[in-house]
Amino acid sequence: VAGLGNYGLRGTRHSVGMAVLDRLARQLAAAEGWRADRRCCADVALTAAQGAELVLVKPRRLMNLNGLSIASAAEIYSFRPEDIYLVHDDLDKALGKVAIKLGGSARGHNGVRSCISALHSNEMTRLRVGIGRP
């Protein structure tokens, strides 16, 4: 599960993907397990939920380069694009509304575009979190 955002701009609506992962890690009692993984330039936490092993990833890069971290983590942890869940902001959804999307285009989202490019696939499942338009 990858939370997209700008690492240096935590707390902004554009980095809501990282905030969702922080919340998920707390709910799964993995919040103390975050560690910097230089191999993929990301913060990583390993946990389990309902019998499934999860790798939580928060890239330590700007949004437009998040895909480099996600692709490196996928290689390190042996994940295929269809195993990856991207959590990211969506300007076209009202604040707080969520939707799940399987594959498809980036729809103008630079972080998703970066992931599609780095993974050479658009098969990732996406949790789109509405942030509304300013």
UniProtKB/TrEMBL annotation:
Gene Ontology MF annotations:
peptidyl-tRNA hydrolase activity; tRNA binding
Q: EC?
A: 3.1.1.29
Arranged from A to Z, the UniProt key words for this protein are: Hydrolase, RNA-binding, tRNA-binding
Pfam families on file: Pept_tRNA_hydro (PF01195)
**Keyword Transmembrane helix belongs to the record:** no
Q: Which NCBIfam families does this one have?
A: pth
Record protein name field: peptidyl-tRNA hydrolase
Per the UniProt record, the source organism is: Trogon melanurus (Black-tailed trogon)
Tell me the gene name: Ptrh1
